[in-house]
Amino acid sequence: MSSDVREAAAGQPEDQGVQPLQEWVTPEERLLLRFYRQLDQGEQAFMRRAIEALATRDSPR
What spatial distance separates the first Cα and last Cα of the chain, rounded to whole Å? Predict the structure, then answer.
């Protein structure tokens, strides 16, 4: 039995009558999503900035 779940994709249509696009996420990604959603707006903003900084910094040579 697979433990993968489907989650709404970030680029879903804005029309509320349209079914959102879906993509598969791993159990680890699902835990991260659950954790993120439990944060308040300020904590979410902090996490977004931290992740963006990690993703955009130069890789070590």
Answer: 41
Q: What is the pTM of this model?
A: 0.54
Token look-up 């989650």 returns 7
Q: Where are the domains of the chain?
A: 26-56
Asked whether the CA dihedral 10, 12, 14, 18 is positive or negative, the reply is negative
47: exposed, middle or buried (Cβ count in 10 Å: 0-12, 13-18, 19+): middle
Non-local CB neighbours of 18 within 8 Å, separated by 6+ positions: 12
Residue 1 pLDDT > 50 = no
